[in-house]
Amino acid sequence: MTTTCCLLVLIGCLLPASSAFKIASFNIQRFSNSKITDVNVRDILIQILRRYELISVQEVMSSDDTAIISLVRELNNATGLHYNLLISDHLGRSSYREKYVYIYREDIVKPTRWYHYDDGCENCGTDSFIREPFVAQFQSLITDLKSFVLISIHTSPDYAVSEVDALFDAWEDAQQQFLMEDILILGDFNAACSYVTSKDWPRIRLRQSESHQWLIGDKEDTTVSTNTHCAYDRFVASGTGLLTAVLPNTAMAFNFQDAFSLSYDMAKAISDHYPVELELHLDPQYSGEVFRTSPSLGIKGGSTNRVDCDCSGVNLTSCRGRCGAFSPDYPCHCNASCSKYSSCCLDYKSYC
Fold first, then answer.
1. Is 181 a catalytic residue?
2. Which of 41, 48, 60, 162 fits 99 for a cystine, CB–CB 3.0-4.6 Å?
């Protein structure tokens, strides 16, 4: 786990007034440099991001961080504020990989500790996620709730049921790591429509747990397409402090197409997802102190644990606990395309 210290400076007179503290989750579909070089797309992304004090971004594609850092630099230029970003490892089991990024207003909120959730052995196919969650604790100066944890996730559509269920394990791990209950799981869960159906919910622990509140309901539409109405993007909150801190009726999708009067084609150029957002209660006793900001942009979130692990005792001929597992060295496979190549383990349909 990585930590950073936060220095305070008393220059409240220089701090722009903030009337809200909004957190968002936004899958910016296949974000790369092409969305920066297209000035129209870039400027709309800035108009969206400036609504928030803290944003979890999914589907950042490039191993090079130039594009996302450039976007945050332009955000700072446009707002006159100082946003910074915490960037995960490049995550995935194949050549297709993504990053999670936390973008935050560094003068009033900062990450203090972070890590990638250790979800098992990738070499043995027993890891729970295609892209393991990126977990970070944040300290906020202007909200009633001074410290909370975010768990960012972008599940694989093919394994959404098992991955959303495994978020319960990631939540338990975060509780132990940070010794706190105020945890918000957020991201593109793919938890709707054909990926997670009504018959799947009874076997998803995160849904059945009385400790968790799903703040984005099943009837919300977080997709831009006119052909879908799906609540793929979610907030799941736990902890009395966090649940009390969230302003009622503020958790919702932000339809930027309607808000900015965009054509359908332009909206699709931004993303195939709308961001979801919520608002936290402000601290009425806040007196204007701010964090010292960094002269540079971009904090590396470290690397995942990809060391070789011992597969003794793992049944490589079964898909139990191994959905998504693929390697040319395995006797059979548990990935979504195994049926196409007639390489599935015999119990693939039973477990995956």
1. no
2. 60
